[in-house]
Amino acid sequence: MVSQLIGKYYRTGSLPHIWCPGCGNGIILRAIVKAIDNLGLNQDDVCVVSGIGCSSRASGYLDFNTVHTTHGRALAFATGIKFANPDLHVIVITGDGDSAAIGGNHLIHTARRNIDITTIVFNNNIYGMTGGQYSPTTPTGEKGTTAPYGNIDANFDLCELAKAAGATYVSRSTIYGANMIINQVEEGIKNKGFSFIETISICPTYYGRKNKKGNAVDMINQLKEMSINKTAYDKLSKEKRNGKIVVGELHKSQRTEYTEEYEKIIQSF
Amino acid sequence: MKYSEFRLSGSGGQGLILAGIILAEAALQNGKNVVQSQSYGPEARGGASKAEVIISDDLIYYPKIENCDVLLALTQKAYDKYIDSLKPGGLLILDNMITRKANRNDVDVYSMPILSTAADKLNKMMVANIVALGCICELSNIVDKKYVEKAVMNRVPHGTEELNKKALIEGFKLVKDKKREMYYEVC
Amino acid sequence: MGEETFKLMQGNEACVEGAITAGLNFFAGYPITPSTEIAELSAAKLPRVGGKFIQMEGEIASISAIIGASLTGKKAMTATSGPGFSLKQEGIGYAVMAEVPCVIVNVQRGGPSTGLPTSPAQGDIMQTRWGTHGEHSIIVLYPSTVREIFDTTIKAFNLAEKYRTPVILLMDEVIGHMREKVEMPNREKIAIYNRKKPSSSLEKYLPYKVSEGDMVPKMANFGEGYRYHTTGLVHDETGFPTNNGKIAEELINRLVHKIENNLDDIVDYEEYKLQDAEEVIISYGSTARSAKSAIDVLRKEGRKIGLFKPITIWPTAKNQIEDLSKRTSRISVIEMNMGQYFLEIERIAGKYSKVDKYGRSNGELITPKEIVSFIKEG
Q: Is the model's pTM score more than 0.80?
């Protein structure tokens, strides 16, 4: 029997999903739905936009207005949707490759505009759908099918990027802490402006296997061990900070929101 | 009509495209068919720029000009480039700073202080285009002056109407003075 | 009154006027010569009529944004030129596949690559047809006068809404930038077509199901209670992705045939002095204007020649062109490229008539004089 949450918010006819056993995406997806349920949003007023990649298949499983767009463009489509109809709650589901590589430019400009969109990045540190190539968040030195000798790229800190570009709510969580994800998505939706939530997921099939991280349970345990909140992290010595995942709310600020500013122009005539 | 194809040439930023638009709009209000087109380089300022206006009682299909009836040249470079495109019997209006001249005995030549009138008399180099437009209209008689004045008012930036009106009148006057001067020369 | 009905209007301006008349209320764009005036005028005019303008971070972002806006029910447009049009192919393909109405204006300039930014060309004819990957059909319109730009922009919106497809409005630097005398029509008398909305209940709504005898599914707007899924993947009637080959075949067939089977409705053209013509020029956009001037000259010399000017470039006016080829001995395709549309005309008319081409790619409009001598060389 499906849970009430699944029954209400999932398009059960489109299940089972395509994700591998052990994949972290399902945890994040359920957390998003739980947050929406907690906030009591009307399903007709919610629009979920995704790009291309494993995580971006999520939109199809959800019973909202949903758009599965082209690679990297979820935020550009979402900007069109939100700007055209500000009454919609627009939520973007994207991955590390989708949002930070091919869609990186859209990410910084959507943040810059501070348009009221909540973005959740399912960061699994790899291109899963195409079979395990290294992404902008694959840690330096780790392996992917296109980094057989180890990745020499520096990896992005997506939260720092979003903050610097002007996002007004920035937070990070991992799939180890589902409640934290739920809370962050709620906060993100409540924030009138661009909200950026990075959730660290796991890809046991590719990233885990390539880098000898063990099975899904091992990987989740690793996330647990690596996670630390910001206050505790700030107290650590530089050496001890290495390899930590700083979780929690990382940034919050107030700034004019794009669609409201434009509405003022319309109203001025 | 004696003149129907106008080429206004100079450098980018001199406002020749705007002058062409105003000429075209005035002729339109005067009941003519008009086409205005332009060609320009990548520079917003400097470089070669030209505006073309065709004024006709008939329908106008081909929107460009090969050989023109009236040529305005505000720079030496534009003069050199387009002087050969002026039809025999055509009207040549050039700024008097242009000194190297081709041997065109087959056209009417009016060399006038267009740029210096704008710079010195009106204290605004920006309005040289409207001074030039005044010269073109006064010499070609292509369109009733009241329509030119109206088109200038309609198309120039807000707040510059009076200055541009003055510039237009200075343009008319340059021609009248020049004609008087030429009359005395003949006498 | 008389003075007011006639206006001196630029081609790009007429495009915006036509679009707003058709119901444009969302524009997303990126500056590029020679189309920039369309964005500038949209930015100035749209908020005054309750519409919205946004300058996006790029060309792909722009087309993505208009597709998103169209999903919420807006009439959306973007405008660009060659380099930007190349980038927009991704979005055009998505709009074809997901059946999202929108209008993409391409004011052509010299190419390839950044080419000749301020000079006219007609080198994108084949790109408009086959620019985005995969099997598909597309509607491309190409006006040649400022008034026709106004009318054709309205038609572009109407067709986009009617057939749930992106429509490409082709222009070129000459007609985009030139100004001419335009008589504005009475806007109240202009027919505007709006997308058909579903009437069934949410439970029964299948976003990509077509009713009997129709080829275009009804379209709900996001936020109106019809929650549905849209994707660029091959999908079934529910909108969900599928790998089923039979469904894929049916979908692609329908996407192509909803356009190709409605030529009578979509195809638009102008005939000039064709009644008694023994030979024909086929030309479009600004080049058609040169052709008309050339035909007037040739007619004065006693040559029975006329012009067939396609306004709908794709799908081709194949029935009309085939008829022409049967009653004339020579068809000359004149275009500012090295013979792109010529390939299509020769395919259709080559059986019955001699098909010649004249074109060049130096960034200058072909002159009537050139056309006259080309025709005479025969």
A: yes
